[in-house]
Amino acid sequence: MTKRILTGIKPTWSELHLWNYFWALKPFVEMQNTYKDAEFFLFLANMHWFTQTQETEILKKNSMTIVKLYLACGADLNKTLVYNPAEIPWHAQLNWVLTCLTNMWTMERMHSYKEAIAKWKAWEISVWTFCYPLLMAADILLYDADQVPVGKDQKQHVEYARDIAQKFNNTYWETFKIPEPIIKTEVATIIGTDGRKMSKSYNNYIGLLEEENSMLKKIKQIPTDAKTIEEPKNPDECNVYNLTKLFLTQEEDQELRNKYTAWGLSYKEAKDYLFEKMRETLAPIKENFNKISDEEISKTLHEHSQKANIIAEKKVKDVYEKIGFIL
After folding, report:
1. Which of 8, 21, 265 is nearest to 140 (CA)?
2. What pTM was computed for the model?
3. Which residues pair with 9 in a beta bridge?
4. What residue spans define the domains of the chain?
5. How many whole angstroms separate alpha carbon 289 and alpha carbon 283?
6. Which residues touch 80 (CB under 8 Å, ≥6 apart)?
7. Share of the chain above pLDDT 70, in %
8. CATH of domain 212-288
């Protein structure tokens, strides 16, 4: 049977940053270009962000930007369905089924709920924040995804989708595929410009659409130790290197490591090199992004959502028949 690979990103902010690119989009596009016999699903996780905002224009603008970045980063519309689950009612319907099969204890263990409780009081959190992993499970199981590229902090959500699929299969016979999370260990966590995990919340990110002057300023602010040009340096302990290596071939990486462990490399030189490699990667993305119109995105999402709807409808009807909803 044809392998299916699925992932999606929330339109939480006005653009994506390097961590989004390296854990999700880059691996997805690489698989799209490598697996000739696979089917690819790349969705707009706008229903997920509705747990955090109800500002219409912000949600629409961010969603438009993120889908443009999907295409700008290399999503091939001839190989990949790029769709909007909000246009596909079967996501919500399967979500209801999964909600009925899930106990409170399971949901109380989910990282997303625990993190929300740590930040706010329980009565300030929406029910959907609590149920967020159920919608993600529905997104995955609807399309019989075999592999789901995710970041390290989202692994639990895929594991939950596996658990609920197995529970349903054991109760109602084989219905859902058991998905596998795909986590690239080298980009499971990407260091931000302050040495912490790259995150919009920490304001230590570099965006895919970052202006060059802003990008260079942020790179110059990356903290380093006090070693002089003459002293050898440990690349693995250097925030500049840990960002730079993401953009390098194996040969380039080895050459840079040799420079670190020898003498004569200044941190200014290392930062300038990071800027050049980052610019080489991001410039084509920005150029592609600027060529894509809002009208093209709206048309693509609508057409691809109709195609995805056919697949999702078939799955939910199978689920409903096995449960006994259809007489």
Report:
1. 8
2. 0.90
3. 44
4. 3-189+293-323, 212-288
5. 10
6. 32, 40, 41, 42
7. 97
8. 1.10.240.10
Dihedral class, residue 264 (left if φ above 0, else alpha if ψ from -120 to 50, else beta): left
CA distance 118 to 120: 6
> Based on the number of CB atoms within 10 Å of its own CB, is 157 exposed (0-12), middle (13-18) or buried (19 or more)?
buried
CB 301 within 8 A of CB 133: no
Quick: pLDDT tens for 239-281. Answer: 999 999 999 999 999 999 999 999 899 999 999 999 999 999 9
* CB 222 within 8 Å of CB 271: yes
Would you state the structure tokens that stand for residue 14, as one six-digit string? 């006005």
Instruction: Please state, in angstroms and rounded to a whole number, the distance separating the CA atoms of residues 137 and 152.
Output: 16
Question: How far is the C-alpha of 240 from the C-alpha of 233, rounded, in Å?
Answer: 12
Residue type, 74: G
Residues pairing with 42 in the sheet: 7, 82
- Examine the pLDDT at 172 and tell me if it is beyond 80: yes
Residue 284 CA from chain centroid, whole number: 20
Instruction: Please tell me which of 30-39, 154-163, 305-314 the model is most confident about, judged by mean pLDDT.
Output: 305-314
Query: At the fourth CATH level, which superfamily is domain 3-189+293-323?
Result: HUPs (3.40.50.620)
